[in-house]
Amino acid sequence: MTIVHHLDDATILSYAAGTLGEALSVAAACHISMCAQCRTAVRKAEALGGEMLDDLAATAVSDARRAATLASLDDARAAKPVVVKSDMPAPLQRLLQGQGFDQLRWRKKAPGVSVYELPLSKGAKGSLKLLSIASGMTMLEHGHGGEELTLVLQGAFKDKVGRFARGDIADLDEDTEHCPIIEKGETCICLYATEAPSHYKTLLGRLLQPFLKI
Amino acid sequence: MLFRVASERDRAAFAVIFDHFAPRVKSFMMRKGASAEVAEDLVQETMIAVWSKAALYVPERGAASTWVFTIARNLRIDRLRRESSAHFTDLEDFDAPSDDVPGDEALNRSQEDSQVARALAQIPPEQRELLILSYVEDVPQSMIAERLNLPLGTVKSRMRLAYRRMRKLLEVVN
Prior knowledge:
The complex is a heterodimer.
Chain A: H1 9-17, H2 22-34, H3 36-55, H4 63-71, H5 90-95, E1 107-110, E2 113-117, E3 127-133, E4 148-154, E5 156-159, E6 162-165, E7 169-170, E8 181-182, E9 188-194, H6 203-212
Antiparallel strand pairs in A: 1-2, 2-3, 3-9, 4-7, 4-9, 5-6, 5-8
Helix pairs in contact in A: 1-3, 2-3
Chain B: H1 2-8, H2 11-31, H3 36-53, H4 64-80, H5 109-122, H6 125-135, H7 141-148, H8 152-173
Helix pairs in contact in B: 2-3, 3-4, 5-8, 6-8, 7-8
C-alpha cells in the first residue's frame, strides 16, 4: 500500500495538540495508523507539546495531593497494548467492536449510496460515518468546508487532485472544488468525518442533494 | 530516572519526577480551563499513569516531557468524553513491535529538547501565538479564527507555516 495523499500539517498539529474535534480525530487517527510518514509528523508535533509543557510556570500541587498520589502507587505494571493486525484501522475496529463492513446494518440513502453512522460521545460536534459508494458513480462537484476528512478504506476514486485509494486521506482546502469518480471494479468505502453542519457544499451533502433535495 | 522507575519500581526516583512534572501538568490543565481541584485530579491521574506505564516509555521515540504531555493530553480528552467509550487514540496504540518504523522516526529528543525552546523563540510572534493557543490553551482552529477575526484558511496556513518552520529549525540543528 503506497499512500499518496496525507494529512495537512495544520491537521497534524491540531491532532497532536489535542484540539481536533472527536470525529476528525478518529479519521486522522485511522490514517495515522496506516501511514508511517504522518506518524513521524505527529511525533514531531508532540515534541513541541512536550517542550511547551516543560516551559510552563509551575503551579504548586497541594501536599495532600502529593502524599495521596505517592501512597496510591502499587507494583502493578501496565500491559503493553495488544495490536491486532487487521485490514481495518485500529481506531475504527474499536468503534465497530470488531465487526466487518459486511456485518454492518448499512442504511441506503440513494441508489448506490449507503451510509453507516458511527457513535460519538455526547456533545461532540459534527458527525462520523462510513460511506459505501458503488463503482462507476460520479459525485457532483463539491467544495470542502475546511473541517472535513475523507479516508479511503476500500476501492478508489479519482478527481483532478489525483487518485485516492486505500489509506489515502482527502484533507482538502476549503476552496478546492472537485467531482470525484468512483473507479470501476470495487465498491468504494470511505470513513467520512465533518465538523461542519451538513450543508450542500460538503461531500455528503452534494452526494445526496439530488435525492434529498437539500 | 524514568528507567529506574520502570525497572526497579524506584519510588524515590518517582518522587523526583513528580516534583518536576506535577506542578507543570497542573498549570497545563488550568490554562485549559480546569479548576484547581479538577487540575489536581488530572495531575494525580497523569502521574499514576506515568508510574504504571513507565516500562512502556521508549526514549528513542521522544523526550520524557513529550511522553508526559501525551499522557496528560489523552487523560484530559478522555475526561471530557467520559460518557462515551471514544477514548483518544494515541500513537502508542499503533506501535506494534512488528511495525516497520522508518529510521527518522527515532527522534533523538534528549538533544532536541532545548532546541525546541530555541526554535520557538525564532519564529514570528503570530505563529508562536497560534502554537500556544493550540497546545496550551486548547483552542480549536475554528475558534482561533473567530477569536483573531481571521478566515479559517488563514489560520490553517499560519499553522502550517509555524509547524514547518519549527521542523526546519529543528532539522537544521540536527
